[in-house]
Amino acid sequence: MEDAYANELNGHTLVHRVWLGGSFVSTKLDPRNIDATFLIDMRAERAVRGKPGSKWLTKAFQSRDRMKEKFGVSPLRIGYQPVAHLFEPERLTPEERTYFTQRGVWDDWWQRCRLPDQTDRSPSEQSAAPARGYLEVSL
User: Fold this and answer.
1) Cβ atoms < 10 Å from Cβ of 63
2) Which of 67, 87, 95, 104 has the fewest CB atoms within 10 Å, counting from its CB?
3) What strand order describes the sheet that includes 15-21?
4) Residue 33's pLDDT is what?
5) With 80 as the cut, is the pLDDT of residue 19 above it?
6) Which pLDDT tens digit goes with each residue over 89-131?
7) How far apart are CA 63 and CA 38, in angstroms?
């Protein structure tokens, strides 16, 4: 798509970054899937919306279970938003606030370890301390 719509994209890439996390980037010998968080550049997404081939930008993230079953990838989406004035929160637009919130949530999640004796594997105060990481890929 980036080649086909180069003029419309104005130098932006659709996928700004990919974060690979979960058991795929651990010492686990046989991870079941790859957890991939895609930072989709919202400027590029707006530029190609409605054009042939652009449906994957929403379709790929609608059913994580289906994508995991079909491709072995559990995709998550964060709408990437470049922010120049990050130390001036009063100037943030609602779109920029959403970006920071989503980015922060998933950054925090990928740094947590699930506690082995915990039956509920959702985030908890006990699992909040950063204990692992993820791999960021620039395309």
Assistant:
1) 12
2) 87
3) 73-80, 34-41, 15-21, 135-137
4) 80
5) yes
6) 999 999 999 999 999 999 998 888 877 777 777 888 888 988 8
7) 14
Prediction pTM value: 0.86
DSSP three-state, residue 110 = helix
Spatial separation of the C-alpha atoms in residues 24 and 13, rounded to whole Å? 25
Q: What is the DSSP string of 20-80?
A: EEGGGGSS-SS-S-EEEEEEEEHHHHHHHTTSTTTTHHHHTTT-HHHHHHHHSEEEEEEEE
Residue whose C-alpha is closest to residue 134's, from 115, 113, 110, 114 = 110
Closest by Cα among 74, 65, 64 to 33: 74
Burial of 112 (0-12, 13-18, 19+ CB in 10 A): middle
For the chain, give the percent of residues with pLDDT over 70.
Answer: 100
The number of beta carbons lying within 10 Å of the beta carbon of residue 31 is: 14
Token pair, residue 5, equals: 């719509």
